[in-house]
Each structure stands twice: as structure tokens, then as C-alpha cells.
Design brief:
24 helices; globular; mainly alpha; 486 residues
Amino acid sequence: MSPLLLMLTAGAGIALLLFLVLKYKFQPFVALMLVSIVVALVAGVKPADLVATIEGGMGKTLGHIAIIIALGAMIGRIIELSGGAEALAKTLIERFGNRRTPLALTIAGFIIGVPVFFEVGVIILMPLAYGVARSARKPLLVFALPMCAALLTVHAFLPPHPGAVAAASQLGADLGRVLMFGLPLTAFLCYVGYRVAGRMTRRFYPMTDDIRAEVYGPHVTNQDLEAWNNGSNQASVQATAAVSHMGLEESTSAIVSKLPPAPPPGFGLIVSLILLPIILILLGTLATSLLPPESTLRGVMTVLGAPLVALLIDTLLCAWLLGSRRGWSRSQVSDVIGSALPGVAMVILIAGAGGVFGKVLVDTGIGAVVSDMLRTTGLPVLALGFLLTMLLRAVQGSTTVALVTTAGIIAPLIATLNLTPNHMALLCLAMGGGGLAMSHINDAGYWIFTKLAGLNVADGLRTWTVITTLLGTLGFFITLLIWPFV
């Protein structure tokens, strides 16, 4: 098949993928598998070889990422159900004081966002934002916007989140280096998000009636909230009384209701458990780079610093320190760990299907043609990764799908460039910037945030979409700035 026909086949395949997901609301895993099969057959893969191509792409991808994603979800689940995430956030709020509560919640979003998926993190932390907004007599958005922006920033950029892990796997990037560059990058972006959100929320955005009543009580109006936002004391006495006495209704899962009562875990313990796998992975990367091959210490650190080993160790420690030592039975520990898997099963399959699509592009020769075409654009590889990811993110909504699809498209080009391990890590982070940007009405995360924050569609676009796009773009420019020096 000629290069032109291969290009047309690839373009038609991506268009079909977007059409199925957007128009007919196909589950992304099903859509990716269907499109991969169609593209493979049209591009000339023999029917007898089709199954081998699909299994090869799925196996290669899942062999690397499934364990990492699953263990990361287990750690997050134990921290969540033990009350550790809430305890961490409350401690930060107490230490930072009332004036800096938005910054405290931003830091909580950054720390909790490392092991916990975005949606789960929002569900954990939003009740705290509700309580703080109620007691401080401030609009909810002042606290919720920087906190949730931090959660999504970590979700888009850092392992063990599925998009970052899948992209690194397909491109052959080292997760330790991704963390080494990504942690300070995302911390800086979260702080920028806090500052930008502070300026955004100087303007008042009306809240929907249901969320306003849930947070502040039925007697508080949007006029009252606007007066509080402007520092006025003219809000109604009735509204103030309602805020003072209203309580949040807390819902607990069936699993939590069966767990024995125990005091919440300590702040230091939770932070240590979150940081442990990160430190082990970073030490493994540094040992490989700095120690001689025959060194015993290098061998030990290479094993302990392997992402799956580091996360497995942390999972066992979480199960013991947050579970067994606090009175959970073995069956309860098992139930909590097992409850993490249904939520990530489909994410793992989507990442695997993205690997299948990438394998099809390589085996059919489409990847080589696309690689040649991308090379002729003259754009830096960082810009290509960022722009392709952002485009796919904008048109279909999922950060994970955008990252794995982009990785499949540009992998053949990357193979010809002889990039250093540091440059590969920066490329993954630049793609993460594209995956963070353009969160709008076709993104589930957009709806989760806007509904829980009580925003209408237009105000969600003015705040959430703007801040995520700004942070994603800034993340890309930072990688571009660092590129020549690594």
C-alpha cells in the first residue's frame, strides 16, 4: 500500500475512533479495539496474523502497566478508606490557618493526588472544601478550584496514573526519570494554579441551588455569597445562622461501615507512605546512573526501585500500618484492597487497547509514514507530542486515551531520534501537559468538578477549562525550557 493510502487509512481510523466515542458514546476500550482491527485489515495485515498483532500489542502494554496501575489504586484505596486522606487534609488546614486554607487544600490535592485517581480525590476532598467554605463564609470556588486543579495536574503528569504510565511504557521512558522531573514540575504548576485561582475567584460565580443549599443551608442566597466574596458584612443574619448550624451529611460505603472504629492515621505516616515508592523509584534510577554495574548496592536498589516492586512494598506496608495494626481483620484488609480493582479495570483495558492501536500502526507501516510526515513539519518533538495530545484530549475528552493514542502515533518517530533517557522523560511530561489542557464539556472530570462546585456550564468553561489549559500549556513550556540543559 502506498504511503498516501496508509496516511489516509490512519486518518480515517482516528476519525472513526473519535466518531464512535463522541457521536455514538462507545466505550473507549471497545472503540479502540474495533478501530485497531479495521485499520489493521484495511492496511494489509493478513487475517491469519491479526490475532497475533492484537495480542502482541495488548500483552506488551499490559505486561508493563497493569501491575503498576493496580497497585497504585490499591494504595490509594487503603489511604482513602482508612481516613488517611481526610486526616492529611485537615492537618494541613489547621497548620496553614484560615487565611491560607486554599493553599493548604492545594497542597492536600497535590499529595493525595499522587496515589489517588482524580475522581476519587475530588470525592474525598470536596466535603472538606464544603465545610471550610461554610465556616469561613466564603464562596466554595475559592477553595475547590485550586484544590481540584492540583488533583488533575498530578493525574495528567505523574505515575502511577494510567495515562502517564502507558505513555512512558509505549515510548520506553524510565518512570524514575519521569518522577524526577515531574515532581518539581507539578508542584510548581500546583502553586501557579493556586495563585491563578486566587485571582479568578475575586470575581463571584453564582452557585446552583442544590449545591448552595447543601453547603450553606437553604437560607443562603447567591447575593449573600457575593457579599461575603466582596468582604461585606451585609449578608443576611438568617443566612449566617444557617451556615453556623448546618452540617454536611456524610455517606460511607458498605466497606467502611464494616471496619472497626479507629482514630485517623497520623499526618507523618500518610505522607511517608505516599512518598516511599517515589523515593525507592528515584533511588533505583540514580543507582543505575551513578553506581558501577558490578555494585551489589546497585543490584539491590535496581530491584527495590523497580516501580512494581516499590509499589508492592508500599501496598503491603499500607495494609499493615493502616489496616492490620488499626484493628482490621485479614478479610477486611483483603476486601479493601480488592475494592480498588473494579474502578481501574476499565482504565487498564483502555490503556491496553491503546497499545494494540500503537502496535497496528507499527506493523502496518503507518507509523513509519506518520513519522516521516511529522519529521517534515520541522516542529520539535516536544511540540508534536504536546499538540497531538492536546488535540486528542480536546476532541474526545479522556486524558488516558489522548496519551496512549499520541504515544502510538509518535513512537516510530521517537525510535529514529536517539533521544537520551532525560529527554524521553521530558517528552512524556510535555504530553502530560497536553493531557491536562482543554478539559471541557466532553470530559467526565469537567462535569464532576462543575457539578460538585455548583457551577453552570459557561462558568465552568471560564474557570475550570481556562485554568487546566493554562497549567497544561505552562507545563509544556517548562519542559521546552529545560530540554537544552539535560
